[in-house]
TrEMBL record:
Annotated GO MF terms: structural constituent of ribosome
Source species: Methanotorris igneus (strain DSM 5666 / JCM 11834 / Kol 5)
InterPro entries, alphabetized: Ribosomal_eL31, Ribosomal_eL31_CS, Ribosomal_eL31_dom_sf
Family according to the record: Belongs to the eukaryotic ribosomal protein eL31 family.
Highest taxon listed in the record's lineage: Archaea
Plastid listed as a keyword: no
Keyword Transmembrane helix: no
Protein's UniProt name: Large ribosomal subunit protein eL31
Length: 82
């Protein structure tokens, strides 16, 4: 079992995507980041991460998010680190 804490930058989403697609794109970016850094195919995000991203609606994504990722076999489970 491997455990790491990452700070994932989401600021570039504000500039590169439409206002109405920012939160879904941020969730996808978090998944891709964890796949790349933890070297796993399956990434399961906790509901707390989803609530943090959607906290200020679809248009105002937080600039960064701290995530605690635990790898068990081939599955990565991520929760909010705070």
């Amino acid at each position: 079992m491997e455990e790491r804490i990452y700070t994932i930058p989401l600021r570039d989403i504000m500039n590169k995507s439409k206002r109405t697609k920012r939160a879904p794109r941020a969730i996808r970016k978090i998944r891709e980041f964890l796949k790349r850094h933890m070297k796993a195919e399956i990434v399961k995000l906790d509901n707390s991460i989803n609530e943090k991203v959607w906290e200020r609606s679809i248009e105002k994504v937080p600039p960064r998010i701290r995530v605690k990722a635990v790898k068990e076999g081939d599955v990565v489970r991520a929760t909010l680190a705070e």
